[in-house]
Amino acid sequence: MTRWKYGNYEFGVNPNGMETSTELVGDNVRTLSGATISQPSFLKDSHSVTSVFYQPRSRAIAQAVVQNSSAVCFENEQLYVLNRVNDRIDVYSSNLSNRVSSVSLSNLQNKNYVNLDVVSNRFWLVSSVNSSTDSITQLDFNGNVVSSGTVSKTMECSGIRYFNGYLWLLRTNGNIEKIRTNDFAKVTVVVLPYELYYSGLSSDSNFLIVGNRDSYNKLYHVDTKTGKIINQIYFDKMNPVYDVTFDGKYFYTINQNNVLQKIDGNTVECDLHLFQYEIENYAFVNMITDMGVSMKVMVSNMSIKRRLEFEHMYEVSMTITKVDRG
């Protein structure tokens, strides 16, 4: 085998860094009848492999003007945009070409809508009640109320996301509140570094994605277990981000000029973080051979070096060992 893959990254094998050995595990067992049973042997192959983790800089690849928009979220290949002026949620195709449908919010008493999320055919809507209270309302896709509650606040809400079984509310000062959905009680708060204005909240399968429109427009990937910022994405500083959503590959942002942008964001630091976490906690990673076979391998002697000539390029070297039972 000369190639291994981990996710989207390919590792090449150093032909001078290959070792093969056969080890006998345990003793030969003698039965009561006098027969001898040999324990199975293991064939161990070790390879020195190297890869370059790299992605190009973030860039906008499409955009559209979405009138009266203040929040956006992605679900089931569609974009849902909060339209506060017309008391509705507008539904757009993911290519931003046209509005498909709308969901009326005219039955709601509180019209001070702030943010929106959608998951599993349910909307989560945040509204401002007064200077110290926000309301959270769960709606079905017909606009009917499923549940509701209130939470206290010291700063304005600038994002909401349902993630890992909880609601997460982003405050403009960078505090992210973890909220239970059954009684809307606060469980904990993740505190981000002080910056002027955090705005917009989404997630991928591992991290929360937080928007910031301080001196530069940025998107942060945040590890909710540690509160650490794992990755930063910079983009057009002329159009401050108001909300962000993620479809599994692309980011979508709404700015103050009602422009909805589709962005190809750089996530290489997230990939590196997950790669290191898997190795440090389990010592094994799942990789794919050049024959297309998925295999768990043990990792040792790993090093990660940043290449200074590119902004997001890292050289990853390590020794991997696979074990085959004989």
Q: Name the average pLDDT.
A: 85
Amino- and carboxy-terminal Cα gap: 19 Å
Spatial strand sequence of the major β-sheet: 1-2-5-28-27-26
Shape: elongated
Low-pLDDT stretches are none
Kindly estimate the percentage of residues that lie in beta strands according to DSSP.
over 45%
Largest beta sheet, briefly? 6 strands, antiparallel, barrel
How many β-strand runs?
Answer: 28
Count of alpha and pi helical runs: 1
What does the radius of gyration come to? 25 Å
Q: Give the fraction of residues assigned to helices.
A: under 10%
Helix vs. strand class: mainly beta
The string of secondary-structure elements, in order, is EEEEEEEEEEEEEEEEEEEEEEEEEHEEE
List the main descriptive attributes of the protein structure presented here.
326 residues; mainly beta; 6-stranded antiparallel β-barrel; 4-stranded antiparallel β-sheet
Summary?
The chain is mainly beta. The chain has one helix at residues 268-282; strands at 3-6, 9-24, 29-30, 36-37, 41-54, 59-65, 69-75, 78-83, 88-93, 99-104, 113-119, 122-130, 133-140, 145-152, 157-163, 166-171, 175-179, 186-191, 198-203, 208-213, 217-222, 229-235, 241-246, 251-255, 259-264, 284-289, 294-306, 313-325.
Report on the structure:
The chain has 326 residues and is mostly beta strands. The protein contains one helix and 28 strands. It has one helix at 268-282, and strands at 3-6, 9-24, 29-30, 36-37, 41-54, 59-65, 69-75, 78-83, 88-93, 99-104, 113-119, 122-130, 133-140, 145-152, 157-163, 166-171, 175-179, 186-191, 198-203, 208-213, 217-222, 229-235, 241-246, 251-255, 259-264, 284-289, 294-306, 313-325. It has a six-stranded antiparallel beta barrel. The model has no long low-confidence stretch (mean pLDDT 85).
